Amino acid sequence: MNIIYYIFVFSTIFLSSCQKDFESSEGRGSLSLLMDTKSGTDIPVIMKSTSTVDVDTFHIVIKDVSGLPIKQNFDTFAELKKEGLPLLLPVGTYTAEAFSGDLSEAAFDSPCYRGQKKFVIEENTVTEVKLHCTHQSIKVSLKYTDAFLSMINPDFKVTVTNSKAELLFTKQETRSGFFAVSQLFTVHVTGTAKEFGTRIDFAGDLKHLENGVEQKLKAGDHLIVTLDAYKETPTVKSVQII
Q1: Predicted pLDDT at 38
Q2: Rounded-to-integer distance, Cα 106 and Cα 182, Å
Q3: Please, which contacts does 160-166 make with residues 24 or more away whose CB atoms are closer than 8 Å?
Q4: The pTM is what?
Q5: In the sheet that 185-192 helps form, which strands lie side by side, from edge to edge?
């Protein structure tokens, strides 16, 4: 009799628990969220550069159809995953937004990514959303030929500007600069020559040329600028897509 009683009590508790789970999911669905910064690359993402970008640190905002953020206890993607995925949401239309860093006019090692996507939550269905975050800045890296370094004293200065803001590079400054998108980039070099101590002062515009045709600069471009001796115009050695 005791065995039968225990089985009856356990069954009652189990059925009651299942009933509660069923009721809590009524009118709700689930969100399974993935993020990447390059096509075909899922989380976690670590970009190979002097500055690493980890999508776990990206800020996440999920808004309902009226544009209001849902009330959830997470600020970053890492916190969202800790909260638990898939995430239970009421049936409806939403927008997922992700971003990292501030979009500065100019800053060292400060890439900015943005991404957003609309999705629909259906009852008792897991909706998989892949959020592709794209680079919002233009990256500029400087390189120096041996001839350039042999010509100029090591205390030289290189200023890069996008017409609104500038960054100062020195021989010791090996970081890349990140600039807001602009079609007017200028490099200005100042210093003194090792021979005779004469002043060196020249500037030039950065242009992305393909087969002799100037291309429009856009977010995600990486301008690798090479400074050479006795050339008054800096050259963009190559343009890569971040």
Answers
A1: 58
A2: 11
A3: 160/106, 160/185, 160/186, 160/187, 160/188, 160/206, 160/225, 161/106, 161/185, 161/186, 161/188, 162/105, 162/106, 162/138, 164/105, 164/106, 165/104, 165/105, 165/106, 166/106
A4: 0.70
A5: 166-169, 157-161, 185-192, 199-206
Distance of CA 96 to the CA centre of its chain: 15
96 near 80, Cβ under 8 Å? no
Instruction: Give the other-Cβ count within 10 Å of 157's Cβ.
Output: 13
Token duo for residue 218: 């856009």
Strands 92-100, 113-121: pairing is antiparallel
Domains of the chain: 26-135 (2.60.40), 138-241 (2.60.40)
Collapsing DSSP to helix, strand or coil, 110 comes out as coil
Using 50 as the pLDDT threshold, list the residues of the chain that sit under it: 1-24, 39-51, 238-242
- Residues found in the chain: 242
**DSSP assignments along 17-78, one per residue:** HHHHHHHHHTTEEEEEEEEESSTT-PSS-B--SSS--BGGGSEEEEE-TTSPBP--S-SBHH
